[in-house]
Amino acid sequence: MSRFFTGGSSSDDESDSGSDSGSDERETKPSASKVPSRFARDSSSDSDEGSGKKRVVRSAKDKAIEDFRSLINTVNNHIRINDWNAITDDFDNLNKLLSKSQRVLNPEGNRTPRIYIRALVILEDFIKETQDNKDKVKLNTLNARSFNAMKQNLKKHNKKYEKELEDYRKAPDSADVDEKPVASDSDEDEKSESEDEAKEPSDSEKDSDSGGESDGSSVGSYKEEEEDKGPSRWMLKADTKDKKPAEKKDKKEKEKTVRVTTKKVKTDEEGKAEKKAVELNQEDVKKKIKEILVSRGKRNTDPVKQMEQLKELLPHAKDPELQIEVLTHVVSAHFDTNRSIATHLSVPNWRSTVDFLTQIIQVLENNPSVLLHEADEPEPVAEQSALGLNDEELEGSEEKANVPVQANLMAFVERLDDEYTKSLQAIDPHTSDYLQRVGDEPLFLELAERIQNYYDSAGKPKRVARIAARRVEHIYYKLERDPTEKKPAAAAADADAPASVASTDAELAAPADNAAAVPAPTPVASDNAEIPAATPSKVKIDSKAVMDRLTSVIYAHGDERLKTRSMLCHIYYHALHERFYQARDMMLMSHLQDSIHHMDIPTQILFNRTMAQLGLCAFRDGLIREAHNCLAELYAGGRVKELLGQGITNQRYGEKNPEQEKQERRRQYPYHMHINQEMLEAVHLISAMLLEVPNMALNAVDSRKKVISKTFRRWLDFYDRQVFNGPPENTREAVIAASKALNKGDWKKSIELLAKLQMWVHLHNADNVKNMLKRKLQEEALRTYLFTYSASYDSISIEQLTRLFELPVNTVHSIVSSMMISEELHASWDQPTNSIIMHRVEPTHLQFLALQFAEKAALLVENNERLMEMRSGNYGYRFDAKNQQQREREGGRGGYQGRGGFQGGRGRGGYPGGYQQREGGFQQREGGYQQGGRGGYQGRGGFQQRGQSQRAF
Amino acid sequence: MTETPASSSTVTPNYDLTQTISPYLDRHLVFPLLEFLDGKNTYSEVDLLKAKLDLLDKTNMVDFAMDIYNKLHNTDTPPADMKAHRDVVVARLKQLQQEAGPMLRVIENRELLSRLRQDKTFNLQFLQENHEVTPESLEALYKYAKFQFDCGNYAGAAEYLFHFRALNTNPERNFSALWGKLAAEILMQNWDEALKDLGALRELIDAKSFTPPLVQLQQRTWLIHWSLFVFFNHANGVNLIVDLFMQDRYLNAIQTTCPHVLRYLTTAVIINKKRRNILKDLVKVIQQEAYTYRDPITEFLEALYVNFDFEEAHIKLRQCDQVLQSDFFLVATRNDFIENARLYIFETYCRIHQKIDITMLAEKLGMEVAEAERWIVNLIRNARLDAKIDSKDNHVIMGTQYPSVYQKVIEKTKGLSFRSYQLATNLNKKHDEPRDQTNRFQDESEDAGEQ
Which of A340, A202, A194, A350 is nearest to A279 (CA)? Predict the structure, then answer.
């Protein structure tokens, strides 16, 4: 890690080594050919300068610095050979030297020598790198031990110097930072200085550029580094840039020509601008932009610096086109500050990016005559795609091809959104930082809306669709309350949240002036779905309308992926708002279930989320079977978290490699968008319980016959195997205990247990749902009771049943009747006495034997068939027989394949404007949907498909 | 094709589907519906007249429109634009007549026509050569027919369209001509012909696989609605409607675009004794669509077959009566429906009871006790019901029928010998190499088969 062995020509010109040497230090360029002496000269130059002015005792100080330098040198050497033992020693030496020279270098005792900090940074960086490459770079045991020790040590040690380190990293450039105010913090100061400030570095950079791309020799070695995709991944972009110096030149020339043409148009405006003598004229601004831009993305340009320079140009740009151009470059520069895919754009940077984008759109709105240039140059395409590297690869390059030269707002918006998501992923959701960050969403939404409107008026529907899709993804998971109900709900939410929430909300409201929803996620309650957004009602009221409008735009103009995604979002949205049938129909009409396995993983995750939400919705609606069908699939594999993108499950078998893990991390949904896991599990288990318990009672004799929920059965078995069962402690145990009670017909205990569950807190109409659940439990308890104990009765009066289960007579009558009709219960009513007469069909001994005999004969034949199948390798007759059976089963039970969940595509129209293959869908739909009193068999087809969908991950 | 008549009445008429249906119908087809409503008092007369006028506005039945206008506004002088319209219509008629002249001459000459038929020379080429018929005049014939139809001359329109279809080669034109002809036949109440056209049309729609599904769906929806006229008037319609609507494609269309048609399908199934087996499927469909469409008729089935709530079923049955009486298509089926519905209730009731009080039953069926008893006796005698009457207690005692053990055994072993046989033959067929093994298999499987 010889970051100081730079070959940059800039090391020679001392005058303003500021930006250059700074970025040099950032670069990672092992070039063994460069000798330490060179380095010495380099660093001496800046540290000399840096410390030279203030210090009194020059010679002693020089000596100390010299010592430091040589020490760093050795450290670097050791680093290169990866010798941690030696590095540890060096570190100790370094500390000794520090204490020794403290007196000399830092008589006041309040500052740490910069060079020492630099050494620390070097060490830290190297440790980090080694850490990241751990599996690639093998350390021997001794070495590894000292590495670990060193790591700990340094970590502790560095705590002390945190601030200095930070400073240094922010402006590694040099010593002259000491004198001047820190560049990165200065926003609008130094206007007077700005001119020469801006000019000088750019000049020098230009020099270095024309000086033949100093890195020519190091590109090779640099690439080596790049391959290990460590944190140095951020170099990627620079790399691609560097590879095309020639193209760069082209671009410059082309830009020139473009400028020339635009210049003609604007001569009059320029004239106006020149009236102010102080100002730069437009021509100068252009030139300056060009100068700055030339170095953009170069390894030794500092994006922060560039950003500053561009910002300073801003006031000088007078006519809108130029303004937009400058602004565009400022925004790009902002984005350049984060080149890593793993980290996110810092929050202040993000906000200011939003500001600048808002300015752009403002300019565009104010000057409708200004049109964004469509790209006819190939150059910006390359630039954009380089920029867009962080974006999903799916965004085809062909779409980038018609990107406007001056500002690709859409790309900016998308990048902004990505950065936003990344930052949410990175911030700890339990902090107030997170809340603040969430509060930034309205900023983004507003911006996106304006840009969308702009594109709309500019007649670019494709772009409109893409931005609309982004907006949809920010809206769909928010629950819109009834205006009447809103107030108390919001209040309740605020009460839930710690006081800090309220305050942050308030202060956020100020910058986000007329902005939209500020969802206030309570750190405890992760269920975003239920989290009301305490917001100005203005935006909220028509959130449905907004959603409908946006999605319809997307359906009309979006590409396949966008359509799918927003379709899913739309379904999710419906489900969230208790419109189950609408959501279900959309799901079925779009045939998403058939095609989702071919989609990319994030979309599959979205699909899973949608299914989960649909399940919750069905449950709230009292549609237990539907709820179960939706959720069963999700829970079949036991990797719910992963499937929902809400956390990473540790895999039992084999480690994931870091690359996979990173990818997975990128797929995570921000915390406030999560679907409450606990609630989901509870809903799944409760609905499984309601279906499975009577089913088990019905098939008490041979339980292998029909299993509705395998997961539920598994937990039940697990429970049974336990020697002692304590009181339930978590959701699952509670539900299992409840189902045990239900099995005995004790619905009261069952409801009691379920009422204690955590989930009710997160349900916004918990009381209704509880009532529904109670009713269902009573009904199912009745059924279970009759199945289990009918053998012990000769007759039961209906009054007794109504008393036992506290159900109205009508309900009891209709439940029992339907059981009779479907021949689940062998009984009939005695109308005059209003009681149920059980018909025992107990076979005589002989009959019983005969039945058994017949069964065994059937088994024998079946075994023969199987035998033959095994021997011959083909299915022989059995194949047909199986098919036939299956067909019979299908006929009898109404579809059995394509059961489970919404597997069956229902041949309904398509989504508005889509309308896809609807023929033949209906048969399946029957299967998928209502299975009278019967069935509920988690179809084999269902499981298979499930397996696939998981494997796709 | 049509638009909803703007009949907005203050009292929302219960369960009246006229407004729902009419968008799917041709203007002219809506007329009978409105005429029917005339006598029902569900809508105010003025509204109905307005609706009619609206309907006629775009047709060429100007005279009729004027009549209605006069009635509506109590005047004798129809507005000027109507008169002007009338002149235009007449002029246009003349023009079309002239254009289609050659064609008309051929068609009106019966003798010539039958001769041409006999010689099988009734084709465009021959006519072109011998009777000055040009493709243009054929086109004009189509327009003329359309015009005639618009003027209310359905018979003429039907005839012209028939000939047009015989000569025309353009499938699109043919298709619309067929629609026209169907409408004309329906309006002439020529049910046999209409049925034929309906069949042809159905085939055409299904055969056009290249049309976008949305269009197909739309056409099916129209067909479904138009067919209601035919099915509920044709003698065999009740069977045919079930056949057609229960087809996947049509059921699909019903569910997607017009769940209200379920009312007609349900009625047809209920009054059709032969179609019991469909009932189960139908109930499923009704349940599925319950969230978009429900009316007493579908609710009746639901009450009876899903909830087994007989009280509810009775209430619904009473409501059904009203609905049937005020429905243009169903009014004729009322008695059948009530009778069959009663039977359904009774049957279901009997299936889950073993002892029923006749008095109560009579009350439920809405009959006198004696009458009810007679009714039950008849049922028993016709062997529809396995029951006895205990006249002392005035009870019906149902015979219980459960699958006996014998049946169960037979059921279980039914396929066995066949399966074994099949196994053996398969073995012989596919594996004739290792002889001994096969024999062993055979023996075993035959053993099994004998058991």
Answer: A194
Helices (DSSP H) in A133-244: which residue ranges? 141-160, 162-170, 176-179, 191-210, 219-227, 235-243
Of A828, A907, A916, the CB nearest to B354: A828
Q: Please report where in the chains the tokens 């675009």 appear, as a residue.
A: B257
**B402, A923: Cβ pair inside 8 Å?**
no
B271, B340 contact by CB (below 8 A): yes
Contacts of A164 (CB under 8 A, 6+ apart): A111, A112, A117
Say if B407 is an interface residue toward chain A (CB within 8 Å): no
Higher pLDDT, B135 or A864: A864
Name every chain B residue with its beta carbon within 8 A of the beta carbon of A621. Answer: none
- Residues of B64-83 as b/e, b for ≥16 C-beta within 10 angstroms? bbbebbeeeeeeeebeeebe
Confidence of residue A836 (pLDDT cuts 50, 70, 90): confident
Instruction: Please give the residue of chain A at the shortest CA–CA distance from B257.
Output: A909
B271 close to B232: Cβ distance less than 8 angstroms: no
| Three-state DSSP class for residue A84 | helix
Burial of A159 (0-12, 13-18, 19+ CB in 10 A): exposed
The rounded Cα A279 to chain-centroid distance in angstroms is 46
Give the span between the Cα atoms of A29 and A605, in whole angstroms: 40
The closest of A147, A19, A29, A162 to A91, measured between CA atoms, is: A147
pLDDT, residue A168, reads 74
Tens of pLDDT, residues A225-284: 444 444 434 443 334 334 444 444 444 444 444 444 444 444 444 444 444 444 556 677
| Nearest residue to A18 (alpha-carbon basis) of A161, A162, A184 | A184
User: Do the Cβ atoms of B252 and A850 come within 8 Å?
Assistant: no
Are A914 and A590 a contacting pair, CB within 8 Å? yes
Contact (Cβ atoms closer than 8 angstroms) between residue A375 and residue A403: yes
Strand order from edge to edge, sheet including A835-838 = A795-797, A835-838, A827-830, B353-357, B395-398, B387-390
Separation of alpha carbons A240 and A933, rounded Å: 64
In the predicted structure, residue A333 carries a pLDDT above the cut 50: yes
Alpha carbon distance, N-terminus to C-terminus of chain B: 68
- Name the minimum distance, in Å, from the CA of A645 to any CA of chain B: 33
DSSP B259: G
The reply to whether residue B408 touches residue A929, judged by beta carbons under 8 angstroms, is no
**A281-315, pLDDT tens digit by residue?**
667 777 777 777 776 666 666 767 777 777 777 77
- Which DSSP category does A314 fall into? G
Which residues in chain B touch residue A932, judged by CB atoms under 8 angstroms apart? 284
Residue A834, phi then psi, degrees to nearest 5: 55, 50
Q: What gap in Å lies between CA B349 and CA B363, rounded to an integer?
A: 13
Q: Between chains, do B213 and A908 touch, taking CB under 8 Å as contact?
A: no
Buried b (16+ CB within 10 A) or exposed e, A766-799: beebeebbbebbbbbbbbbbbbbebeeeeebebe
Model-wide pTM > 0.90: no
* Beta-bridge partners for B353: A829
| Residues B7/B49, Cβ–Cβ less than 8 Å | no
- Mean pLDDT, residues A106-126 taken together: 72
d(CA A622, CA A628): 11
Q: Is B353 on the interface with A (CB under 8 A)?
A: yes
Between chains, do A853 and B416 touch, taking CB under 8 Å as contact? no
Q: Out of A844, A868, A908, whose CB is closest to B255?
A: A908
Provide CB contacts within 8 A for B342, sequence distance 6+.
B317, B365, B366
* Token representation of residue A929: 């949907």
Most confident of A76-90, B78-92, B249-263: B249-263
Minimal Cβ distance to A850: which of B287, B405, B423 = B405
Joined together, the tokens standing for residue B25 give 């119908």
